[in-house]
Amino acid sequence: MQRSRVNEIIRQADAFIRSFGYIMPPFAYWSPDELKSRRPAGIVDARLGWDITDYGQGKFDELGLFLFTVRNGRAEDLKRGTGMLYAEKIMISRKDQLSPMHRHIVKAEDIINRGGGKLVLELFMSNPDGSIDRDTDVSVPTDGIVRTLKAGGLLKLDPGESVTLLPGVWHGFWGEGADVLIGEVSTVNDDLTDNIFEKPIGRFANIDEDEKPLHLLVSDYDRHIR
Ligand SMILES: [Fe+2]
Hints:
Layout: H1 3-18, H2 32-38, H3 41-44, E1 49-53, E2 65-72, H4 75-80, E3 86-93, E4 99-103, E5 109-126, E6 132-133, E7 138-142, E8 145-149, E9 153-157, E10 162-165, E11 170-187, E12 196-197, H5 221-224
Antiparallel strand pairs: 1-2, 2-3, 3-11, 4-11, 4-12, 5-6, 5-9, 5-10, 5-11, 7-8
Fe (ii) ion is lined by residues 102, 104, 109, 171.
C-alpha cells in the first residue's frame, strides 16, 4: 500500500479514536526523526506504536486492520511467570473490513468493543494439529458469562462487550453497521512470531514510499531505526 494512504489512515484513525475520548500516548505523535534520534528501547524493542496492515494483499478497505500498540511486556517475563506479562492495543475494524482467520500460539487476548458499530467474530476451535476444527462447538467467556456457539458461529459484540480468546481459538472479525473502536488487553504480544493465519498471507503491509511517513509504523522499525 502507498505511504500516502498509510498517512491518511493515521490521521483518520487519530480523529476516530479521540472522538471516543481515548487519547494515545505522547510517543504516538513523534516524527520519524525524533523516534530515530531518541530510540527508546521501551518503545522500539517492545514494538509499541502504529501498525496499519492490509496483510500484504493491497485491498485495505476489504482486508485490513488499524492497530496501535500502547504497551507490551517481555517474553522472558512471561516465561518466568512474573513481571510485565501484559500488553494493550487500540484498534479499528472498519465496517465490513475483515481481519482474516488466525490463531495465536502464546497470546491470550480480550477483544473489547469500545464503541461504534457491532464487532462480529467468526470462531472455531483447533484440532490437535492446530488446524481449524470445523465440527466442535466453541465456548468463550464474554464478560464473565460463557457463551457456546456452533463451529464457525458468529459472536456479535455490542459496545461495552468483550470476549476472551485463549491460544488456539481461531478468530476472524469485522465491523458491522459502522466502524468499531476495539480494545485489546492480552498477554505479551509478538506479532513477528505469534500469528498463525488460515490462508498464506502476511501480517504487515508492503509500503510503496510515495511520500514521507507522518509517523513510523512498527513494521518500519527494523529498516529505519538501527
Ligand atoms: Fe488475534
